[in-house]
Amino acid sequence: MEIRAVSEAAPDRRPPAVNEDLVLTGPDFAVVLDGATAPAGVESGCRHDVPWLVMRLARELAPPLLTRSPTPLPDLLAEAIAGVRATHADTCDVSNPDSPSSTVSMVRLHPDHVEHLVLADSPVVLRSPDGKITVHSDDRIERLPERTLEAVRRLRNQPGGFWAASTEPQAAYEAVVGTTDRADIDVIAILSDGASRFTERYGHPWEELLDVLTTDGPRRLIDLVREHDAAATTPGWKRYDDASVVLLQGP
């Protein structure tokens, strides 16, 4: 499959703009990490920031993916989280539930099937040759009974709450995972929520999102999202967000 990707920082970030998303791609895999921006005043117990976390996760994931390790994706992610935890366990409070965290969405291509893993709110969208669309998503954070800072802190990486890549390797085994026959896929999109909001916030059908991607490319989708962001007036929404798109297309 041909792979195209775009990732950019939110346009309202103070310079120098730091993108807390990260895209990692190879000949037969693609990964989107979307670091969770810490609310003002939250003490993470960690001397490192979110971009450090997503970069370290990518560095842990890259070697086994590039060497085509047969290890299942949840195991690869659990090992990556454990590896990152070990690098700062001596300097940071890795038991703090507010430690930097990230979504993780991965796709790995095989000759006869495609694996996916989705942890937190960065969906993987598949389209079949006959136009059927399947969305693999993890919406547990959207289904929390309350979204206060204390509730999110209490329910992060806890049964009955939601899961993200941070300091707890067990989170990898709570991801949404599965496989699809390769013959049943001609398009795959991996989106951070800063890009999937084209559908999830602004109401465009997934069919339209994939049409934009396959016709005009990832750059155009992000531009359209930014146009909606600039015009948005709904109170309580974060107007802009980092946005990442990976498009895999073809046989």
UniProtKB/TrEMBL annotation:
Pfam families: PP2C_2. It comes from the Bacteria. Residues 29-217 form the PPM-type phosphatase domain. Gene3D superfamilies: PPM-type phosphatase domain. Signal peptide: none annotated. This is Protein phosphatase 2C-like protein. It comes from Kribbella pratensis.
